[in-house]
Amino acid sequence: MALHIFKNVSLSNLLLTDNQDTLQAKFQHIETSMTWTNAQLYCRTHYVDLATITDNTENDFLANILSSLNLNDAWIGLYKIPWLWSDKSSVSWSSVKWEFGQPDNVKGNENCARANNEGLMADDTCSTRLPFYCRENRKIKNARAGSHL
Ligand SMILES: [Ca+2]
Questions:
Q1: 124 in helix, strand or coil?
Q2: In this predicted model, what pLDDT tens digit does every residue of 46-92 receive, in sequence order?
Q3: How far does residue 148's CA lie from ligand 1's centre (Å)?
Q4: Is residue 92 part of a domain?
Q5: In this structure, is residue 12 part of a structural domain?
Q6: Could you tell me the distance, in angstroms and rounded to a whole number, from the CA of residue 36 to the centre of ligand 1?
Q7: What is the CATH number of the domain that holds 139?
Q8: Is the full-model pTM beyond 0.85?
Q9: Do β-strands 49-50 and 130-135 pair in parallel, antiparallel, or remain unpaired?
Q10: What InterPro entries does this protein's entry cite (predicted)?
Q11: Which of 4, 31, 50, 120 lies at a CB distance of 3.0 to 4.6 Å from 86, suitable for a disulfide?
C-alpha cells in the first residue's frame, strides 16, 4: 500500500512558538484514511501509538494541522468502553472537548473518537475510514532506535 506521509517541513507556517519543535516531535499526521483499528496498527508499527492529547495546546496544534490541509477530521487514540487512550492511559477531560451533542453513540457502536479542525471531538463507528494522528513522529522514533544500537 502506498502511503502519503505528511512531511513535518510543511508545518513550519503553523505555529511560531518555542513549543513548535516539541509539538512537531509529538505528532505525525497520516493523510491515508483507515479504520480506527488499522490506524492504531499502523501507528504502532511505524511510530508509537495513535495520538494522545493531554492539553489544549496539543489539541489546538492538531486542529491547525487539519485546517491547513482542508481536512475536516482525523482519528485520535481515544476509544471506549470506558473512554481511554490507545495506550490505556486515562483521559484528562479538560483537554478533550466534545462537539455539541457528542458523544451521542447514534449508531449504537460509536466506540472510537475523531477530532475535527476546530479541536472538537465526536464518537464515531470505528470502521469509518479517516486520516489519523500518530505519536510520536519519525524523528523521535529514529532517534530512539539509534540509541539502542
Ligand atoms: Ca457520534
A1: strand
A2: 999 999 999 999 999 999 999 999 999 999 999 998 999 999 999 98
A3: 42
A4: yes
A5: no
A6: 14
A7: 3.10.100.10
A8: no
A9: antiparallel
A10: C-type_lectin-like, C-type_lectin-like/link_sf, CTDL_fold
A11: 50
